[in-house]
Specification:
- This protein has helices spanning about 1-10, 25-35, 40-55, 65-80, 85-110, 115-120, 125-145; strands at about 15, 20-25.
- By secondary structure, the chain is mainly α.
- The protein has a single domain (about 1-15, about 25-150), classed as Arp2/3 complex 21 kDa subunit ARPC3.
- The protein has a two-stranded antiparallel sheet with strand order 1-2.
- Helix 2 (about 25-35) crosses helix 4 and helix 3 (about 40-55) packs antiparallel against helix 4.
- The protein is globular.
- The chain starts with a helix and ends in a 7-residue tail after the last helix.
Length: about 150
């Protein structure tokens, strides 16, 4: 899951205005891994995979920040969403995504100021919804193909 997170994060990058960062479809894998494998695998694969993508992709300054934010995101999604109930899974993914979004927003403020934080954070919001719309069905497709993966 860590390698998959790294690769998918590096494949497509959507540049963010002002701060020079990027959004990516790596969020799909984070949601999938956390919902399917739980909080430990979800958190570690999200944090390490995303930080590796920063390092390998030319953003090494962001790697420690990314590691912290994404570990928390993946752990939250995995902990809250590791249930059979679809509504719990949706809520967990949304909460985790907004924790991640808020973490980066807070990181931008001391580095770039409030205006840059707002201008760079707002364009990311649609990608969070898209990640949920793809990551959740991917999780259910794998669970349907491999029912033993679903927690009891």
């Amino acid at each position: 899951m860590t390698a998959l997170t790294t690769v998918v994060t590096m494949v497509i990058r959507i540049p963010l205005p002002v701060v020079g960062g990027y959004a990516s479809p790596g969020e799909v894998i984070i949601i999938f891994a956390a919902l399917t494998c739980g909080s430990v695998v979800g958190g570690l694969s999200a944090g390490i995979g995303s930080a590796l993508a920063d390092i390998l992709g030319g953003y090494p300054f962001w790697a420690p920040i990314t590691l912290l934010i994404k570990v928390v995101e993946g752990a939250i999604i995995g902990k809250l969403g590791y249930h059979k109930n679809m509504y719990w899974k949706i809520a967990a993914a949304l909460i985790g995504q907004f924790v991640m979004w808020g973490g980066y927003f807070l990181a931008y403020i001391p580095l770039y100021g409030w205006a840059a934080a707002v201008l760079s954070s707002i364009p990311v919001l649609p990608s969070l919804f898209i990640a949920l719309v793809i990551g959740l069905p991917l999780h259910y497709a794998v669970i349907k193909a491999y029912p033993r993966l679903e927690n009891k």
